[in-house]
Every structure is written in structure tokens, then in C-alpha cells.
Amino acid sequence: MSKKAVYFFGDGKAQGHAGMKNLLGGKGANLAEMSSLGIPVPAGYTITTEMCTLYYENKGRLPKALVEEAAKALRRVERSMGKKFGSTENALLLSVRSGARTSMPGMMDTVLNIGLTSKTIPGLIRKTGDARFVYDAYRRLIMMYADVVMEKAAGIESKDGHSIREKLEAALESMKEERGITEDKDLSAEDLEQLSKQFKKMVKRTLNTNFPDDAEKQLWGSIRAVFQSWNGRRAIAYRKIEGIPGDWGTAVNVQAMVFGNMGEGSATGVAFTRNPATGENAFFGEWLENAQGEDVVAGTRTPSPLNKATKTPETRRMKSLEEAEPKLYAQLDRIRLKLEKHYKDMQDIEFTIEEGSLWMLQTRTGKRTGGAAIRMAVEMKKSKLIDKKTAIMRVHPNQLDELLHPMLDPKAERNAVTLAKGLPAGPGGGVGKIVFTADDAERFSKEGKKVILVRNETSPEDVHGMHVAEAILTAKGGMTSHAALVARGWGKCCVVGCSDLTIDAQKKTLRVDGRVLHELDWLSINGSTGQVHLGKLDVLPAQPGKNKWYKELMSWADQTRQLNVRTNAETPDDAKQAVIFGAEGIGLARTEHMFFEPERIVHMREMILAEDEETRRKAVMKLLPFQKKDFLGIFKAMAGKPVTIRLLDPPLHEFLTLTADQVTVLANKLGIDQQKIHERIRLLHELNPMLGHRGCRLGISYPEITEMQAQAIFEAAAELTKKKVKVLPEIMVPLVGHANEFIHQEAIIRKAARDVMKKYKIKIKYLVGTMIEIPRACLVADKIAVDAEFFSFGTNDLTQMGFGYSRDDAGTFLPDYFERGILDQDPFQTLDQEGIGQLVEMGVEKGRSTRPDLKIGICGEHGGDPESVKFCHRIGLDYVSCSPFRVPIARFAAAQAAIESPR
Ligand code: ADP
Ligand code: MG
Ligand code: MG
Q1: Ligand 1 atom 8, closest CA
Q2: Which of 77, 138, 276, 300 has its CB surrounded by the most CB atoms within 10 Å?
């Protein structure tokens, strides 16, 4: 079978298009699209992702079709650019760029200036009359090639801990020091020529191979390196975090070079068609005069703002492209509008100006903060660029999380010692202890410490540490630096380009504002303003209701969704917070946590220790007033919205983990013998408490517990009803696996209801239902539904018992499962639709077969996980219930589900 291996683009034409991302990668597909749109793109060709897969299947041999088609495409590029690859007179130089289906910022490496050799250099110097430029390009090629191709792709680990890139950079720095200059651009042609020679020697000495002095070798070496880097450590780490499958492969783009480093009339830049941090509809970007693209992204020089409108106090004095090159800026602005209109989304673009000509090098859908995503979606809908459904689909439910994230307390900030200010690259507040390496970040965070990763700049090597950090702070780089891009993608607090910081990563010190900070000192960072404060400041909860775009988008979501959203809450405060976040009821109020307060736990323990019914009943009834007070508070907070209360669930011995001292105190308080307490505890001990005496089994052994709880619920309901406060209790029996268990408990509950209604002389509307969390309950759901008025799937326990994984012990083996690809998601976080999902579906189907109007919800962790919410919508649940802070996320995921699969 012969597959097309290579797709040409250039001269306003292209063989591929934007719809071919799977085959051409994101970058290649969009280069083709831009070319077809008549936007100036340097000619080139894209090698398909299939060739990457073939390359691995062939154990590293290049497919024959690839070699042949690439040669043909190269001729076409040469014709288009009027230059020849490897020519001694008029050499074409190339870039080799990777591009997977979805953008993986900085993950795969680019090699620029390919084709510079001892044969081509003299001709190029003659042609350009600019030896400085040629040697500048050459030293960059050697560095990139040595780093990407000869070291990383070859899998070489440096023996002294310093990569070849670090060594070459050190040589560059020491040359600048010798010359007494600080900027690369002040190095002369001779300096750069000498540096190139030195680089080549260092490469040979360190890596034992010569830097190839042959254009073709450089080209194919780079192409192979891109293939190799797909399975490099960094790429694998990133894919794991982002959940990108390993078998997609990467495409390779081979493209004619254009030069931003040909002197004053040349430049390079990166821009967003709208502001990626705030979402404002303003052209936003950065540019550097006389530089190659990597200079902007690497953060080695701090770039200037693109236009006047986006200058900040810090960049006020820098010259914008709009001021320096008004005509080119206007052309770029036109391209910006064309791209937005075409792609109907915010684009992240890369451009280069070579001696007054503008070239586009990349466009892709831009990463944005959650706040920006929301604002853009709403504004694009209002300007009719997209419709309402598209607007809702534009925002990932998890992005709302950022708006729901805490900020630094402004009062605390005013009084804080502000050490420095950088660029606000990722919003929200971050408070933590400083660390200087990604590995340290990972290590300390595993110990439960909150850390802030402080670096000069970040690179893809740092992603694991960036991921676990509360916030990221860098001394260098702009709003489009690696740190900024990655942090924004994750919605993480981040400040970059904070040039007042002097970081010594070796000594682990941070000098700033006349102070020296050490590892694990506290810092507080405001990612929305860029300020860095000393110490540990207070944080404030989020107030998404103050954001008008958020409110508008959520109102669209609420109009769209069909699934109700409730919350898991057991205190009036939590309940109120959840209502503010849009909860439509409580799906799970656990009652056991209500017994842990010191004055209550004594009675609880007394009850557990009781050896006969009478003593037990006496102790239990002491708890009644407390329970009643709890329910009064919750019912009031919910004001007539349904409240599902789960009866006592955990194994009793959880209340009896006592130290010897506590036993003494308890014995004195209750006036019983210490020995007796110890004995009772021994008796209550279970080998498998999770499968032991818990849930409705307790209420069956000790009916007075159920009696007391039901009485407390109905008395609270009765008292409020008398005061004209609406209440809607739903009493839930936990851990039912057999219909008879439910019938037994239901009788007690209904009797309590009758007694209370008689006593108060009123009627209370209520439901009695059960939690479905034991696999057997799903199998006999039709029988349970004869009596139960509602089901709520407890998917935590259902997952635990369905898989047979102890939730408390799964941490010991699940990491191995992820590592070996046996599972790709944690079933306790995202519902296992394939297996456990079948149990849920069966429960729904069987339950409704006996009781068509059976109300069904879910109340496990999964209720706040977008994928699981979508599943619940598809199988016809009435509601999901999740923690208060996940409520908006669940509402939004439900809206997306309704769009994706209307029911
Ligand atoms: P990334 O995926 O990390 O963004 P790119 O392939 O876009 O990597 O390359 C990084 C930078 O290299 C680009 O921003 C661009 O400035 C520069 N570059 C890549 N190809 C060319 C080219 N053909 N001409 C000029 N510069 C290029
Ligand atoms: Mg790029
Ligand atoms: Mg349970």
C-alpha cells in the first residue's frame, strides 16, 4: 500500500488543508490553510504522521516513498524561493519543525538554518554581504542541532549534569563577558565565526561526533530527530499529563527559512488575535528586532509590545511594531482579522519580518485562561462570529475552575512587602514555599508542601515540577514564553519576566529587593497583576458572580441543560455557598461528620459502647437535639429545595480510634471501667471495615439509630413547616444490597414520620429512597424500586466494589497501572463507563421498569467530573450531585452534554 508521504505548501497553494490535522499535524495543516488563503507563508512541505508511525514500525529506517517524495517537494520549494539547497552560490536554508495533532508547546524541537556548511557559507556571505548574519545563523544551527539531534534525540545523558546546550551557552556568555558586552547582537562577525569554530570543537569533544558539514545530512538528521523526539522523555511526560495517546505520532514540517535577524529592518514576533489573559478583543503580542523566533519563545531577551494599546507601565518606553513599522503592522493586523474570521476563534500566530517583508510562520487556536475563554466565547457570539451552542462548546468545563479559584486578599496585599513586579501571565493567587528546580518542586509537593517554582526561565524539562507547583515565577521571558504558555494552558497562577530577581539555582537563593530568600521561604504571587510579595498572604474565595461574561455564559448553559445539579453538603455554610454557585438541591448530606464535634462524640461513643438496647437508646437520644439543629440549619439554607440526607454510614470503629489517654477521659466521663472500653473496642474491631458493619447494617442491628435520625429530620422539618419555611427532605438508606434491607429501614423511617406529623399536627412531604452502591443492588434494582422512591448512585463505593479495589489502598498499585497503560484514568476520579457504567445503566433501567417516575441521581466524586456528568446525561439521570465548588462545572458540562447528545 503506498501512502502519500509529503504535502507541499507555498505560492498561495497547498496540497493539504486545516481539516487534515491528524495526518499533517496542527502546524502543517494550518501552514497549508494559510498558504491557500493567500497569506504569505515561506514554501515548504509536511511529512505525514503516518511516516512517523512507519518509521517506528521499520525500527528507525526511513520509508522509501518518503525519501523520494521529499526530494521532489524540495525541488518545488527551491523553485518557489529561487534558491537551491546546498548551493555554493545561492543556498536555500531550511527549518525542520515538528507538529503533532494538538499543540504541545515547546515539546518537540525545531532546528533552524539547516544547510549552512563550509560549502554554502562563503556564497551566502557574498550574496547577503553580511558575514555577521551568516555566522549568527551558523552558531545557532550548531547549538540547536547539537542539542536536539546529536544529544536529545540520540538519548545521550550528559555525564557532568550539564547539557551540550548549557555548555555552548556558557561559552557564548563568557565571550560576551570578555568583550565587555551584554547583548548577543553586539557580537561582531569575527566573534561569531570564532564562536562557531569553538562550538564545533566542543561538540566533538563532548559528544564524540563531528557536527555534520553536509546539507543533506543535516536535513535528514533533523527529520529523524523530530521522529525520535516523539518518544522522548519530555514528550511522553507531557502527553501523560494531557492525556494524549502515544500512537498519534508527529508530522514534520520542512520549510524555507526567512530571517528576522538580517539587521534593523528585520524582526520576529508572536501574537494573539485577542488578549489570551483577559479575553479582551485587542491585538496582543510581542516582537523583537533583529532576532530569530527562538529568542522570543526562549525568553532570553525581553521583547517589546506589538502596539501602543497593549503597553504597560513597564514597557512604556519600548518601541512597538505599530510605531516602528506602521505599514507592516497594518498588514499584520489585516491578517489577524482574516484569520479570526476564517477560523472563527482566537489565533496564536508567529511571524517574521525579513528586510521589510512579512511572513507568517504559524497559526493555531490560542491557549487562554479560563476567564479569557469565557469572555471571548460570549463576545464572539454577540458579534455573530459564532452561535450560542458553539460558544458553550468553546469553554472547557474545567476552565471555569479558574474563576472559582481564590485570589490574594487585596487588604493583605496592600500591607504586604512587595518585592518585585513581573508580567501577569496566569491569573489568581498563589501562595507557597519557594523551590528552585522542578525535581525539588515534585519532591516537596509529595511531602504535602505547597511550593512555588522559581526559575530564570522554564523549559519543557520543567513541566513535571510546574504541574505540581501552586504558582510559577520566572525572572525572564515575556507573555509568550514557555512558562506563560504552559501555565495558561493549565489555568495556573504565573508571573514571568520579573527582571528584579537574581536567582542562583545552585546555591538555592533568590536575591530581590535587597533581601536573600532561601529554599522553602514563603512567597505570595498575584498572577493577575504580576506582583510578588514576601511571606504567606491570606487568600480570598472566588466571586464568579461579579464577572458579567461568566454570568451570561452560565445563563446560556442553564437554558440549555436538561440535567439538574445538586451539591454534596453537610453544613449550612457549604449549602449556602453551593446555592450561590447554582445548586438546585442537596444530593448528599452525610450525617456521620456531624458527630465528630467534641461535645457530640462523647455521646456517640457512649452509644457505641452500650451493651444493651436501653443504654444505647438513652445515649442515642442525647444526640437528637444536635442532629435536629443540624437539619434545621441545612433545610433553612436550602429553602424548599430538595435535601437528600443519608443515614449513618461508616463503620462504627471509626469513632473509636482512641489513644490510651482518651480512653481514660472517656471512662471517667461515662463512669465505666477502662478495661470495659478496651474490650468493646476489641470486639468491634473488623478485618475489613469497608465491607463490615456499616451502612444500613448498623440501622438493622441498632434500629434506634435510624429512629433517632429520622425523628430529628422530621422534627426539624415540622418546626420549619410551622414557620412557613418550605422543606423537602429525602431520606436515603445507605449500602442496600437486598430489597429486604431497604424494607426494614423504610418501616422505621415512615413510622417516625407518622409519629412526628401526628405530634405536630401537620403534613410533611418527603421521600424515602436508597443509595445504589453495591453491585448486587444494580442487579436487583427492579425489586428495590418497588419500595424505594429514589435512587442515588454512590459511585465511589460502586467503583470500589465493582473493581474490587480498596479505595484507601488503591494508591499502592494504581500508579503501576497507569505506568503500564493497564488503566489510563483513575476510576475514582472519572467514572469507568465501560464497566461500572454498565452497572449504573442496568440500575437505571431495572429501577424504572418497576417505577417509571423513579428519581435518579449520582452523588459520588464523579458528579463533578465533566466526562462523568456527560455520561449521566446520556443514560437519563435526573441530577448529579457534587461538591459546592464543582457545581458550576457540572452545570456547564451538563449543557455541553445536552448539545452533544440531545435527549
Ligand atoms: P514550536 O512548536 O516550539 O512553536 P516552531 O516550529 O514554531 O516551534 O519554531 C519555533 C520558532 O522558530 C518559530 O516561532 C519561528 O520563529 C522559528 N522558525 C521556524 N521555522 C522558521 C522558518 N522557516 N523561518 C524562520 N523562522 C522559523
Ligand atoms: Mg511555533
Ligand atoms: Mg458509600
Answers
A1: 110
A2: 276
